[in-house]
Task: structure prediction
Amino acid sequence: MENKLVDLVHITKYFDNELILDDLNLSIKENSFVTLLGPSGCGKTTTLRILGGFLTPDKGQVFFDGKDITNLPPEKRQLNTVFQKYALFPHMNVADNIAFGLKIKKKSKEYIDDKIKYALKLVNLEGYEKRDIDALSGGQQQRIAIARAIVNEPKLLLLDEPLGALDLKLRQEMQYELIRLKNELGITFIYVTHDQEEALTMSDTIIVMNQGYIQQMGTPEQIYNEPENAFVATFIGDSNIVDGKMIEDYVVEISGKKFKCIDAGFGSNKAVDIVIRPEDVEIVPPNSDKAILHGRMTHVIFKGEMYEMLCVTDDGKEWLVHSTILHEPGKEVGVYVEPFNIQIMNKPTSDDEAAIDPIEDEAED
Result:
């Protein structure tokens, strides 16, 4: 990998004899925005803490810019971490919070003052030097935590669910702020979240994790449009995952009907899993030439930007449908899917790859 900044090699970590990370290998290139995404307990926060120096792996090595930093303490690493709870000092004002690390490094007052002004300008809080921390909103405190991190000029910024405590509107605003900051600073961001939309919105690269393993690594478009297994397909957005049979290259059978697809190399008459996103299920008139499957609409929920509907086909399968066009419950319909929108996957070979219910809680990883 070109311009490789981080390299985690054969990382294994146990907590109370429970395996959290199992032989994890991960490389991250410089000046990228990488998100570790997965359910609680998948190992994403543990990975971040090992990289930050707050945990030591039981096996494996951590390389940073080509150097082994596995046993280097956090303060000796060229990185900073922003936590969900910010860890600001309530007895210090904004300027003193930002300057804390610089004072430990015995930087001059002039240097520190310049850095404080620079950092506050970057996070759009100019003139806040003398404010008390308790007088700031949650979003402002989050910006101060970021300002305190960036004044140390890290090559890497680790962010552990930093937007989790914010309300929806402010969280969305801060997503764009973080993208802007990353582009202006030209440093590498590694971001931990269980929020799929957040990951898709902000990242250059998403790493989907489950049960201590990397399930898939790729761009947001690759992760969403080309999931490699049922777990990824279910965890990232809504999906219809149905049983199918690969008849031959470019032809798959769904509910006894043949659909054209763009996949090859799965063999002949082989059982496969098929992923079709709800927005890619096309509802057509039942007598249309495009109607490959037939069924009846059963449920509808209005979600503002689109309708979420359920279609039950003649074989009893339920299809989740997202569309801006309303199809009333009880309506007889045909179902069609463009070949490009049919994603073929091998059947899961382990529980790790199987689809899960992606309901999240706020537990630590």
Residues 357-365 have pLDDT under 50 and may be disordered. The CA atoms of residues 154 and 236 lie 31 Å apart. Residues 168-185 form the longest helix (18 residues). Residues 238-349 form a domain with the OB fold (Dihydrolipoamide Acetyltransferase, E2P) fold (CATH 2.40.50.140).
